[in-house]
Design a protein that fits this description.
CATH architecture of chain A: Orthogonal Bundle
Distance between the termini of chain B: 26 Å
Order of helices and strands of chain B: HHEEHHEHHHHHHHHHHH
Structural class of chain B: mainly alpha
Radius of gyration of chain A: 21 Å
Number of helices of chain A: 10
CATH topology of chain A: MetI-like fold
Largest interface: A-B, 44 and 52 residues
CATH class of the largest domain in chain B: Mainly Alpha
Helix content of chain B: over 70%
CATH topology of the largest domain in chain B: MetI-like fold
Number of domains of chain A: 1
Order of helices and strands of chain A: HHHHHHHHHH
Number of helices of chain B: 15
Largest sheet of chain A: none
CATH class of chain A: Mainly Alpha
Number of domains of chain B: 2
Strand order of the largest sheet of chain B: 2-1-3
Number of strands of chain B: 3
Strand content of chain B: under 5%
Largest sheet of chain B: 3 strands, antiparallel
Radius of gyration of chain B: 26 Å
CATH architecture of the largest domain in chain B: Orthogonal Bundle
Oligomer: heterodimer
Chain lengths: ~250, ~375
Amino acid sequence: MKRRWTGPLLAAAAAGAFAYVVSRQDWWAAALAGLFPSLPQTVFPTATVGELVIQHLEVVGISSALTIAIGVPLGIWVTRASGKDFREIVAAGVDFGQTFPPIAVLALMMPLLGFGFAPAIVALSLYGLFPVVSNTVAGLDAVPASVLDAARGMGMGRWRMLRAVEIPLASRVMMGGVRTSVIVNIGTATVAAATGAGGLGSPIFSGINLQNGAFVLEGAVAAALLAVIADAVLAQVEEALAPARA
Amino acid sequence: MGSAQSRRIDRVAAAGALIALAGCVWLPFAVSRANRIVAGVPAGIGSAGAPGYALALLAVLALVAALYPDRGRRPAFALASAAALAAILPWALGRSAVTLLAGAPAFARVSVGGGAWLTAAGAAVVWFAASQAASRRTLGYAAAGLVAASWALAFAFGGLDRLSLVMEYAVQRDLFWSAVGTHLSLVGISLGIALLIGVPLGVAASRVGLVRDVVLGVVGVIQTVPSLALLGLLVVPLSLLGLPGIGPLPGVIALTLYSLLPIVRDTYIGLAGVDPAIVDAGRGMGMSRLQLLLRVEAPLALPLMIEGTRAAAVTIIGIAAVVAFVGVGTLGVLVFLGWGQQADDLILLGALPMVVMAVVADGSLRWLGRAVVSPGLRGDLR
């Protein structure tokens, strides 16, 4: 099967360019000083843009890793014989959870767990679970029964069937869930800065409090670019996982 | 086969009963504070007296029901214990508040602890499992009515007014209702504008390939941008136009932009999915293009358009909270005030109505989406 290389190359180039631009604090300083000549201070003083992006990716990375580590096995388990009983309740819970506003999940975690980095991680990974679990189940369900029969006929055991047949065929849909989850996490993590989680929300909040448009713009531009580029990169991963067709 | 299977233990109900039991014995049932801000002192189920012990006993009963071999009465038994758990919970909370506040100064307060939340969650799981297994639904409705009545009575007589959340509401009543009103009107206005823009865009996308690619691409990118960042990005262009970058205007713009993706996408998918044979038949009847759109295609696409509106509504009910940061008094104001003061119950007072709004919008628009499916098609599906 022929693979197209333009998409992956463009996404990689965009990610590289973003990393470089973010590392050039002098560019940000010059651009913001030019846009807001009347403000005494135009760059968020506490951390550089690069440091903020890394903080943000830390929060999103840890919570997404937790989400995947819990959500994928949970989704697989409810499609197996041993977890079949729990399938309906998990599906109902996931449906219900997805109607929750992410801010509400974040807000409701605070009274239970307190403020700061760790509660934000718990809230983000919990909210991220819903698309991951529902797409894992949907992906595994979509594997045709005839393919499973053929695998069984070849003498594959249950474990090998899962690893060699079901997961590869479901991986694209599963990755779609991970992508949704990560992008929502990036957005919610911005708001989580208000609870002391750090990241690109901090200059936005600080700018709103100090009526400093430059801080707001600094955080907003970086957060928007981060989300759009992360989405583009994950879309390419999703594409690459599409099962090859003869 | 059915009897062999139903004689096994009900693992879901058993898990729910264990969750409820853990809530009763493991996590603090209530948390008391000498005033609104200081760290809380956890209190166990004992502080709730007889209703508290009844909760623990009912959780054990639900567990027995789930593990006991089913001879046909298990679902009713499990449902009854779940309903009793849910019905007694407010009385236990009220009693706990009264006990913990006895002799305490007026500004002392009692919050709902993690254990009470866990007990409620466990009861919900048992309820779900039992109603899945039950053959008739009437029992479930009767149980739900009983639980609702018990909560109403507990609010009137059960000491629930001593709970911190209720006290917080009493203090913030005006702010609360104005926030609910602002939240709903902001969401309603934005959704209305998004429908006025999004539906024609969806129609155009279903007619012209280039429009489809550009419009779906652009609204897709907007959807990825974090809501707080989008609000920040609106500040500069709005102020360049001499418009306020803070206040309802950027709020409505942001919510409208976020509503566009689901509305445009589902309008497009709905129209593109109409069976060409049906359109042909309409054309054969001599319909004009406008008549075809309004009388054939739009009615068939309507369920999906409502699905898009539902997705948009659920999304922006959450994002409307973030808009509070740019100076609009939505429910987010209560959440962020609570974050600032580390006042847990103020946070809850803002977050709970948002959850209720999202769940109600979700349920009612799902219902509407099913109700408008053309009767002919519904016959098809059955």
